[in-house]
Amino acid sequence: MSWSFYFFVVKLIGGRYLLFAGLAFILAYFVFRKHISFRKIQQRYPKSIDYIREIGFSLTTIAIFSLIPLLFIRNPAIRVHTNYYTDINQHGLFYFIIAFPIMLFLHDTYFYWAHRLMHHPALFRIFHLVHHKSVNPSPWAAYAFHPLEAIVEGGIVILFLFTIPIHTYHLPFFFLFMIVYNVYGHMGWELYPKGFNRHWLGRWVNTAVNHNQHHQYFKGNYGLYFLFWDRIMGTIREDYDQHYDEVKSRSKNNP
């Protein structure tokens, strides 16, 4: 195993976190704050101590996430038992492309059920309370997990490696998409347009309003990228559509 590889992954995942969370934070919370504050999902703002907590736990999560490629890909004794591959021709270009939506579906399913499990009273304080201390999350909360939850969240990569063929480029693109969507889900503003929640496609897509409600009320809206598990299992909040419509209907003179 190469620790230089580990620190490379830390810088890659950490750099993306700092870039996207930092960019969203600077633009929404400073540059355009006066112009868009009326559209903030929750009208109040987190305190400085909240930002510090979110960044601190996110950096810990990044350190844990970075261990997984080191242990399962750079370790020949384990890698030989995985489905990791480096030659696109081994499984063809079509699979190389279609693997990404498969990974998103698997991750969304894994997250939904792991998330619901961590909300069980016997597990919540141990695994998930740290993340829910961000009742009014900021972009910095994207990776703000307790170390035990970070291990659970990172387990999706292990599941990938032992269930489907995973190419060298799949994981970097997966982590890129994950951090972008996590930052969006926690930033505090809704970027999808008015009526998206009621569109035939949009009603199956998770939104910042949906996830913000989960942080605010602790119950319901357990999905990550999509809403089909929430809709199938009846765990989507009944006031979700009403709240989405209210947020997107605000005007500067009538927040």
- Overall mean pLDDT stands at 96
Secondary structure class reads: mainly alpha
What kind of oligomer do you see?
A: single chain
Q: Helical region count? A: 12
Task: Say how many strands there are.
Answer: 2
| Low-pLDDT residue intervals, each spanning 5 or more residues | none
Q: Could you tell me the strand content as a percent range? A: under 5%
N-to-C order of helices and strands: HHHHHEHHHEHHHH
Tell the overall outline: globular
Number of domains: 1
Strand adjacency order, main sheet: 1-2
N/C terminus separation: 55 Å
Helix content: 55-70%
Major sheet: size, sense and barrel closure? 2 strands, parallel
Report Rg: 19 Å
Detailed description of the structure:
With 255 residues, the protein is mostly helical. The protein has one domain (3-191). Helices cover 63% and strands 2% of the residues. A two-stranded parallel sheet has the order 1-2. Helix 1 runs parallel beside helix 9 (170-186), helix 3 (48-65) runs parallel beside helix 8 and helix 6 (92-118) runs antiparallel to helix 8 (147-163). The longest helix is centred in the N-terminal third of the chain and has 29 residues, at 3-31. The radius of gyration is 19 Å and the shape is globular. It starts with a helix and ends in a 6-residue tail after the last helix. The relative contact order is 0.15. The model has no long low-confidence stretch (mean pLDDT 96).
